[in-house]
Design goal:
Elements lengths: L1 H29 L9 H22 L4 H21 L9
Length: about 100
C-alpha cells in the first residue's frame, strides 16, 4: 500500500513538472500572459501528454525500462533545478 502511494506521488510530481514547464514555455514563446495561471488539472493533463509523447519517442530507439525512466527523471530534475534557480514557483489558480 505504501509503495503504491509513493509511486503515485512520484508519477504525479513528474507529470506536473513537465506540464507546468510546457505551459510556461508556450507562454514565453507566444509572449502570452494569461489573466490567471493554469490550474493543477490542466498542468497535469498537459504533462501527461508530454511524458507520454516522450515515452513514445524513446520506445522507438530503446526499450522502455529503467534507462528511459532515468532520462525522464533527469528531465524533471532539470526542470526543478531551473525552477529553483529562477525562483519561478507556480502559484495556484484561484477561482
Amino acid at each position: 500500500m505504501v509503495t503504491v502511494v509513493i509511486f503515485w506521488l512520484y508519477t504525479t510530481s513528474i507529470i506536473w513538472l513537465y506540464g507546468w514547464f510546457t505551459i510556461r514555455l508556450i507562454q514565453q514563446l507566444t509572449s502570452n500572459t494569461w489573466e490567471k495561471p493554469a490550474d493543477f488539472t490542466m498542468q497535469w493533463m498537459v504533462g501527461l501528454g508530454v511524458v507520454t509523447s516522450l515515452a513514445n519517442y524513446l520506445s522507438l530507439i530503446m526499450n522502455l525500462s529503467s534507462e528511459a525512466n532515468a532520462l525522464i527523471l533527469a528531465g524533471a530534475a532539470c526542470i526543478l533545478g531551473w525552477m529553483l534557480y529562477n525562483k519561478e514557483f507556480p502559484r495556484p489558480a484561484l477561482p
